[in-house]
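Re: Re: token formats

Sure, here are both.
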Amino acid sequence: MRPILLKGHERSITVVKYNYDGDLLFTASKDHVPSMWRAENGERIGTFNGHKGTIWDLDVDRFSARLLTASADASVNLWNCETGEILHTFKHHGPVRGVAWAEGGNMFASINDPFVDHNAQISVYDAPIDATVTGYSYSDLPRLEIDLPKQSDGRVVKPTNIAWLNLNEALFVTFDNGAIRLYDPVTGEEMEEIFPHEKKINRVSFNRDKTLFITSSADFTAKLFDVVDLYHLKTYKTDRPVNDAVISETKDHILLGGGQEAMSVTTTSGKVGKFETRFFHLVYEEEFGTVKGHFGPINALAINPNGLSYASGAEDGYVRLHFFDKSYLDMKDPVPEALQEGEEEEEEEEEEEEEEEEEKSGYDDDDDDMEEVRKQ
């Protein structure tokens, strides 16, 4: 696998994302300056200068014409991708953690943390796709604001990611208590809530058709779900916090990235910290490979829509652009052999015998306990 090292950021990477066509790569970090790269060779095309805080998230529209960036300076900037100029700055009440374009590119949603007297909020803003042509003046007031107050026990729950479901039917929001909620984008009412994880959901990724999504959590697992009914399909277990996971568009594979917590990275070597990208089979939940290279926890992953390459960004401040070998692209996943009728019957008999032995051993233990009680 041939990696290209992209040295364009001074601090740890927070997000990497391909555009819809897969020919551009957008990256952001804690150094306030997002960058745009050519995906085929890692050449940096330009930077977007204007923020004064960490860039936590970004999203580019369908035609790679406009870019949204969510920053800790309590603002979302709307950029012209071709010129790098700021079209508008949308002010928020607290650090902005996530941003996402709606289908059609005429509006977007954002999430921000609580700050001083303001609760955490979900906001929806208008941003017409033909605004530059028609002379539309952007409004600082959102068309919808959803307040996220403290829980009944007084605990503050912060949103971590936001996305739109197909046809803009719902706003999909994850939280740091392991919850996922769906909100109506018109009325702001909560439609559904599930708790797939015990700890913070670090990142959520959808496949291209938005029929599947995978969550990455600090509870050492990543989970695959059906978008339609939020049905849990698969669980990918690791021995470290999972910071990001992506679904391959061309193979039944899942890529996981994570590692030891950043605060204790300096006390361990690269091997001990386990900072590699891990490859799992989507159906069988089995890990079949790893790709090393980073010297800190992987914070962000993105796989090219054409399935030929992927990008990873880590706490070490580097983005690594990996191009898959021909051996991987030609690899066929092993299919478990179907059991014959006789083999199935034998397996069932063995399971029954094991259950009987367990039951007998349980009764023997109880009898021994009774005898000890009688002796006492």
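Second one below.
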Amino acid sequence: ARRTATSPPSRARQAFAAADDDCVALDSGSGDEGSVWTSAGEMAAQMLPMLPSVELSAEGVITAVVRGLQFNDAPVPDTGLERCFAFMDLACKKLVTGHGNVPKERTLEKFVAYARASPKVQPFVGALSVQFGELQRIAGTPTRGEIASMALRVRSPVSPLTHASGFVRGALGRGEIEQTFMIRLQKQRATGEYLVTDLVNVATVASVSRQLNSEVATAELSPEEPGDDAEAVRLYRLAAEEGDASAHWKLGLMYEYGRGVAQSSTEALRRIKIAADQGVDDARMYLGVRYENGRGVAQNNTEAARLYRLVAEQGDAELVMAAQWKLGVMRRKGLFDGE
């Protein structure tokens, strides 16, 4: 009966909002007030829906998943993880658990067992606080439903044995760590319900963004035979002549950095533009950074946003989050006013 409960999400959100307002002193470290917050949060968590529904908004799904994990054991152990199982699509379940390629690994019991130790969800379980960012939307198309995403700032307790810095706090007090995550949902065309498709630590996304911003692309420049750049250029050129878009991308980088060929930013840009036009997301992100910062091209925020949006709508999980991150930064800076 517990897993079929569908309490109105607005009631749960209102209850959490009231608990937040009444217990703002949680940050002061007061044990009594912290206990009040925990009790109020556990009560609110029990109102959260356990299954997707067409009546649930994107915000309602995010609230259900995130707050449910924060109070994972309300009303009984692992209720929050069971809720995740219902609200995540198969790809996200694989992302969270690292399992699920075979049917026997896709059961609720297996998911809960694997997810208990997953770094993707553990920061949310028992989190001291969660701050919800602004919901971002990308309109649906004839082939896919609307995409929604939100940044989440999570403050979690860290035991001395697991502190990220390796520093043992011991008697110095409770260890805490703050992390930012991006949660991404997609509206299912068949059912009209929102499902979670990605839950990614922004530190990973930021590292991708920093790599793009600094134009470090050594991983993309590794030829088939280490140290033989000229042979790599020859192979990339042959593949490009056969219409391989990714070969244009890699050949463009070889020209940009003068590896195995005379350096030519003009030829590099031409090749990378071909790759971007043919759907290579790495090339689109690379060009987006160029247009955003005016590196080697006329600065053009509109074109940068267009390229980021293309990646955000159809790229792989890591690049999608990087693109959404870039769009969010541009929007906050007032560099463009698109949705």
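The chain has a mean pLDDT of 78. The longest strand covers residues 175-187.
- S.
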